[in-house]
Specification:
This protein is 72% helix and 0% strand. It has 6 helices and no strands. α2 (33-42) packs antiparallel against α3 (47-65).
């Protein structure tokens, strides 16, 4: 049941991100709530599960949104893995943790995407990417951390989502 709920949460985030958020985009940039969801879920998982959640969410997003297949899968998997690996050394229940991780995750994801596009031979305008896309994306994601984090916190209050040992 846990896996089913996590799959539904990932699908819901991708649908919202691709169907609703384009109407509130700024300079063509929309919040990356799928990545934020991966971060918030990874705070509650071990490294393997968090990496798997990141990979599944990223690949699904790549397929649905139609970007380069694999880049979100790889970056979300790495983000999930490292957060899952070190979540016992940070404060996962403190609101500043997902905020800081989301800002770093945004910068990592966008830098990875830019590097991958550059390596594929596309022309990349680094000044434009940093000054407009990365800054707007970081601010947008910062604002979206609150509802996603609260939603994940509420999700883990359900009995079916609690860990069974």
């Amino acid at each position: 049941m846990q896996k089913f709920i996590l799959v539904l949460a990932i699908i819901f985030s991708i649908v919202i991100e691709s169907a609703l958020f384009p109407f509130i985009s700024i300079a063509g940039v929309v919040p990356n709530i799928t990545m934020i969801l991966v971060i918030c879920l990874a705070l509650r998982q071990n490294d393997e599960k968090a990496a798997l959640i990141g990979l599944a969410a990223g690949l699904t997003k790549d397929i649905v949104v139609g970007r380069i297949i694999g880049i979100s899968g790889i970056t979300f998997m790495l983000i999930g893995y490292f957060i899952g690996k070190y979540n016992h050394k940070i404060f996962p229940d403190h609101l500043t943790t997902p905020i800081v991780l989301t800002i770093f995750g945004t910068l990592f994801h966008e830098a990875s995407y830019l590097l991958f596009v550059f390596l594929l031979g596309y022309q990349v305008d680094l000044i434009l990417a940093v000054s407009q896309i990365w800054i707007i994306q970081a601010i947008y994601n910062f604002l979206m951390v609150f509802p996603v984090y609260i939603g994940v916190q509420q999700l883990y209050q359900w009995q079916v989502m609690k860990k069974h040992y």
